[in-house]
Amino acid sequence: MNYTDTITLTSKELACAMSVCGYNSFVYQLISEKKLVSKKKKEITIFAEETEQSLRGKGFWHARTETNLSKDLENLMHAVGQSKKVIHCIRPGQELFFHQIDQSFSLRQFVDGEEHTFTYGDHRKGYKEELARFYQLNPASTRDLSEIEPIQVSEDVYNSLHELEKEEIDLMLNNENENPAFKAFIDAFNKNGKLFNPITFAETEHMDGKNIIDHVAFSVPGDDMVWHLEYEEVNDDKVYFVPVPVSDYFQKIEDTIYEFFGQVTTVSKPASKPKKMTSKANSRKKNTPEPFSFKRGVSFFWRSNVVLLIMAIFLLINKGSWVGDGSGTLLLFVLASEVMIMLLSFFSCLPKKESK
After folding, report:
1. Distance, CA of 96 to CA of 89 (rounded, Å)
2. Cβ neighbours of residue 171 under 8 Å, at least 6 residues apart?
3. Which end of the chain is less packed: N or C, by CB atoms within 10 Å?
């Protein structure tokens, strides 16, 4: 997959492709989240057959490769699987992942229902505008929020927000005595499905399933603004909803992304399955003799005996032209040659002296 390409897969196709590339923990998590297939053997067989045919139809299935995937798709799967740091953004019905590839590029994974669209993005061009568009906000908005004060609520009130009924929300919005800032927040929170949108910064290891969350930023999109959840003082029974201009909020998120990705170990471009040893290293390994090798000695022994046998046969063929009885002389020759072969075979087991 080139950095200008786009690849779209269904959840089933993604699970199948990641599975044949060896990232089973990723597959288990995806199957569990999307409920793609049960543990019944028959359903698993049908699942495998259907996804194979689907990948064939898209030109991603190549029977002659080790993984049965096209090179572009295999590279993409390793780019996802080898990424050590991932940023996961969620809004109702959609997800957006940023997989760190190297210091110049990151891999975007946009998820809409069962459809996953992968594209490479230039890390140096930033994330601000893309994030704002994902959350359906204008990235250039710089609304003046000086008249809207942060809202402080208790932890109990915060926990009860998700359980508000429609009648309770309508009552708050229609109450003239209610704090205008709180009404604006409740209206935005209700329109967002009574959910906070998380942006999770995590260190991942898709081979063994490890996932360490570094930190999470929660927010709710408002009217040309973002309500940022400030929960650092939650232990003091204080939770704040802070109004932030769209441009300022996503600029801060972008700065955090750069800081988070700054110390990541780079992956080859495009990412591919790591080789156990380079060809040069293999060459050095093959050229380095073993300290003492019976294999070399045995090889010299049997080849030398084959030569001796051929010589003896030629001598026996001409036995009629021998002067006197030459059998004793032939036997002495064979025995002496055998002793010499055994001695040389022993020396063949020793390491060869390398010329400088």
Report:
1. 5
2. none
3. C
